[in-house]
Amino acid sequence: METTDALKAKPVYLNLGPSHPAMHGTLRLFCELDGEVIVRAVPEFGYLHRGFEKHCENSTWTQVIPYTDRLNYVSPMMNNVGYCKAVEELIGIQIPERAQVIRVIICEMNRIIDHLVATGTNVVDIGALTNFWYYFNVREKFYNLIEKMCGARLTTAYTRIGGVMRDLPPNFDAELRQYIVELDQAIKDVSGLLNKNKIFLNRTVGVGVISKQDAIDHGFTGPCLRATGVAYDIRKTEPYYGYETYDFEVVVAEHGDTYDRIVLRFEEMRQSVRILEQALKRLKPGPIMTDDRRVALPPKVEVYTSIEGLMNHFKLIYEGIRPPAGEIYSCTEAANGELGFYIVSGGEGHPYRVKCRAPCFPIYQAYPKMIEGRMIADAIAVLGGLNIVAGELDR
Amino acid sequence: MCLEILKTAFPDAVLEAALGRGQAVARVKPDRLLEVLRFCKQDPRLQMDFLMDVVAVDFLQESPRFEVLYILYSLLHNHRLRIKVRVDDGQSLPSAIEIWKSADWAEREIWDMMGIPFEGHPNLKRILMYEGFQGHPLRKDYKMEKRQEIPEIQEIPD
Amino acid sequence: MPSVAENNILTTKLNEVVAWGRKYSLWPLPYGTACCAIEFMGAVSSMFDISRFGAELVRFSPRQSDLLLVLGTINYKQAAVLKKIYEQMCEPKYVIAVGACATCGGFYDNYAVVQGIDEVIPVDVYVPGCPPRPEQILLAIIKLQEKLDAQARGEVAKDVMRASPAILYSEK
User: Fold this and answer.
1) Under 8 Å between Cβ of A28 and A43
2) Cα separations (Å) of A97 from A162, A164, A245, A282, A321?
3) Does A117 sit within 8 Å of C78, measured CB to CB?
4) Which value does ipTM take for this structure?
5) What is the model's pTM?
6) CB-CB contact of A346 with A352 (8 Å)
7) B64: preceding bond cis by omega (within 30 degrees)
């Protein structure tokens, strides 16, 4: 029996380190391997911790908005909307109708581009490179549109507290419809390449399974939770900006494996397209910023002709917005799940505390559970499907 | 209504329970915290199966200094609740990890950023900052620009 | 005698040929951390097409690449890893710092972020922007190619090309 003990292999420790092609963003996974099978895995992150929360405490309420862009940098406008929604609820103001429809449009557009990156990079890790190009071409078209809206492709800072920064560009309707057609074609192309592909099915079906109970216990939300069978979507349970009046479905899968997560994202993109088409019909001319003088700058005519307008303008520029003291927790359905902002205000021109509840934080926590007992290649395939964005995870 | 259920079940542990901007918030005593949280999860009228987040706020001028919040959600009843608890600098809280697994990393982050220890947590190490960082950055008395020396790469012990 | 060996037509032409080979076959290592990595993915995609410059063969291993593209914020936890990756690359190696965060820390002037990767490794080309457009990243590659040419012609001495890294920031 000594011979079998001597022949037993010692475990190998592999560091899938922060600089690795398949680690989306800077994540680290320290694995204990037995052959090629992962026996134990310890994830580590914090390699992109940029002190978002500390910066929020040292900036005015509006200056926080560019910092929120960089949280989930593949769908930046959703973070802008999430933060501005929280502050508006704290102050207790309503944004005008047109601004609400614009926010729905940008949320859905950003959901689409987030899912494009998530599925595109996921299948690249599995080996299917062509889909990446198809998706990125469509993404460039959306970026062109976003650039016309606010001047930047990625770090948009489009929303302001009380509305949006700038109105939609002319001809927005026709361009978006044209890009939606191209998106549909791209999804069809990619599904055609993947859906019946035996290699793809072997690599993803049954890989990285998590049960419904575990997912809820770990605090999953978003596509990863819906892939296990729980139909939780904030747009349906706690609707905001008129989502209860839009006709769309919550996509739910059964098994909770990687295949489900990828195909669920395809289907969610189609549902987002449905919402976009309905929202485009609802766009009516109107103001894009509230006229509540506590948050919005008065029109220039008033500033130059009346003393109250001048003082209001001066106070808003010099001291910033001052929400009343209190706290609030506000959440939206971001592309990855429930993006929550817990904000404490001390009644000053800068937030007292901002905590961003990142949707991929609990998901990455459960990652070792999904890959223990599987091989390294499976670990990579699973990681792509979870759509861990390091900016959000580390803040 | 969550707050009435909580107040009738724990009349002595719940210090305040109020609606703030339409959101239910309750403040409890730190030594009864785990009981209250367990009740929130298991009671069929509350059934808070999601622990969305654990947040800590530093009120430098007040005493007790820190406030730790548990943001809860129930899938079945579609209601939310926030449980708050106040602790002093150096005081520790029991870990909620046996109740919800999502408390694991959230509590590690609070330890890292604010310095509030959690008893019963299996692995209370720094999670966002590097090992060897001195201090707790999100505290109000830590200056934002204060930087420290760059460390060597850490190998994770098993 | 030394001047004949250095400046005769054969060695200068050889230098230029070597530089021609190097500049049109840069193998990048995209050290992507944050948002700039997404713009780099855009530069690699078919709309902006980095392969016009011969640099489409991204190799994620430091042993196989010669251009380190630092895309995104580097914080103190990451800095040690970045230095190790840089040291593992073989000469000749070039570094492009893409984006405001890699160049100077961006607007993250705080306890966790390195204020510019030249505190840790020497940099050849800096690209400003937050994030820079894909065309700016391509311009950085062009500038690097011009620098390689200048190096070959002897207009710029090899050592001056890179400033030595500053002492790692430490505040007590």
Assistant:
1) yes
2) 11, 11, 13, 10, 22
3) no
4) 0.90
5) 0.89
6) yes
7) yes
